[in-house]
Specification:
By secondary structure, the protein is an alpha/beta fold. The longest helix is centred in the C-terminal third of the chain and has 17 residues.
């Protein structure tokens, strides 16, 4: 699994970026942006890539259990192929993409803190803003007791308290570099 921001708005740059994804073995794209979809572009340029559109907001409100369930279903569909490699992305790769990747890792048995560490190591700018929602959905999906969920939430919160990032600064830096292709 890889995490990124979206394809560049310039078609030629996006085509080169998409080719990099293909060269890296990406077989499935999970696009989480409510504001845009690259489904037609990907179908035209790389029709062998399976495109899963699960667009949602990035307004800081809660993400629904149903959204995470749809993401887990896309993951399961992709992993039915033995050589599957997912590209999970939103617009900047800060909130929605890393949060869905977190849900994937939880579903695959990674611990609450280990999954956060893995994501932040792979993508240092990941704020993972919807991690709490992903954990809530995970606990409900697997029938985890409220007492145990509370304990997991405390572990998660302590990790966020100890590993805070300045999201405004990250966004400002990304916007300053928008003329360059995103680095995934």
């Amino acid at each position: 699994m890889a995490i990124s921001g979206d394809l560049h708005e310039d078609r030629d740059v996006a085509a080169r970026q998409l080719q990099q994804w293909v060269d890296a073995g990406i077989t499935d794209i999970v696009d989480l942006r409510q504001e845009w979809s690259d489904a037609a572009l990907v179908a035209e340029l790389e029709p062998t890539i399976r495109y899963h559109y699960l667009g949602t907001h990035d307004n800081g409100g809660a993400q629904t259990d149903a959204w995470f369930e749809a993401g887990i279903a896309a993951l399961d569909t992709a992993l039915a192929s033995p050589n599957a490699k997912l590209m999970v992305h939103c617009h900047m790769g800060i909130n929605r993409g890393p949060s869905m990747a977190y849900a994937f890792l939880l579903e695959r048995g990674w611990g609450v803190v280990k999954a956060l560490e893995l994501l932040r190591t792979a993508r240092p700018i990941a704020a993972i803003a919807y991690a709490r929602d992903a954990l809530r959905a995970h606990c409900r999906r697997h029938g985890i007791s409220l007492v145990d969920e509370h304990e997991l939430r405390n572990l998660q919160q302590r990790w966020f308290d100890d590993h805070a990032i300045d999201v405004r600064r990250v966004i400002r830096l990304i916007r300053q570099n928008e003329s360059a292709p995103p680095n995934w």
